[in-house]
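for the writeup, i need someone to sanity check this before i put it in the appendix. the sequnce is what the collaborator sent (i think, or maybe the updated version? ugh). structure was predicted straight from it, no edits. if anything looks off just tell me and ill rerun, i have time this weekend
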Amino acid sequence: MTAVAARPTGRAPRLGAGLCLAASALALMGIASLFLGASTISPSDVWDALSGVDAASDDALIVRTLRVPRTVTALLVGAALGIAGGLMQAVTRNPLADPGILGVNAGAALAVALGIVATGATNAFGYMWFAFLGAGLAGAAVYLVGGALTAKVSVVRLTLAGVAVSTVLASLTRVLLVNYPGAFDAFRYWDVGTLSGRTLDIAAAVAGPIAVGAGLALVLAVRLNVLALGKDLATSLGSSPRWTFAVAALAVMLLAGGATAAVGPVGFIGLAAAHAARAITGPDYRWLLPYAALLGGIILLAADIIGRVVAAPAEIQTGIMTAVIAGPVFIAVARRRRVMEL
């Protein structure tokens, strides 16, 4: 395994430069998110609000309490979903895999619906804790059902377990909402996925789990390269596929669970970011995962900015815009046969 991990690619300078360019693009997108929105605010007023020169005006209130928190949240969530998508495709060897396949979205949705019915939770911060708990429990259930702690673990068993558990949890959510129609209005706003109304408290609450998940993913990168050679060959090289599956599943739960808890289910980011990253880096996960994090942030911020601008003074929820923007990007990338072969 060491020989594989240490094998030079000869592309490191080019990939490093590309990573810097992607980081610069993400930074520019973050700045654009502060200056553009449903309300028209001049660049000088935005700068005054950020610098504290004019902190009491209505424009400053919009910039400091709305645009800054949603920009920070978008950076965190986009990066988390991008890395989670790359991890899921690596361990399942499925080019269409995304975090939802481990039951993360379905578990979070059921927990949020239960929370609304049981406690009357009506705000994003209240939903967040239910979503995170549901995502974690659902991921653990998929993991146990898929036999990931036994010698029988395989990508097929894990994928089938994820699909089965997700289907059951989604059905239970629908049954619950049919019997409690009063909870449906609150639930559907969370279920579409949005960055509106997210505060820095929410970003701070999920930043820790997302950081731990990202760290685990980066530590796993070399083992994922070995696993890509095949389970038997990976074992012969001294790597444990079962241990790799276990740590990867934990990382996905932390990353996707934190992202979903913060903004609700947002599709296509994990898929599109991972495939776009693979088109640039190839199958080396030491580069693919950092690229997926940056590209996930870029895509989510672009979707959020466009959703705020095209329908001003109203806005289109981020979950809808990601499907509109990332969907065609994913289709274009996925049509490349070389990229589809994991």
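The longest helix spans residues 58-92. Residues 1-6 have pLDDT under 50 and may be disordered.
thx in advance!!
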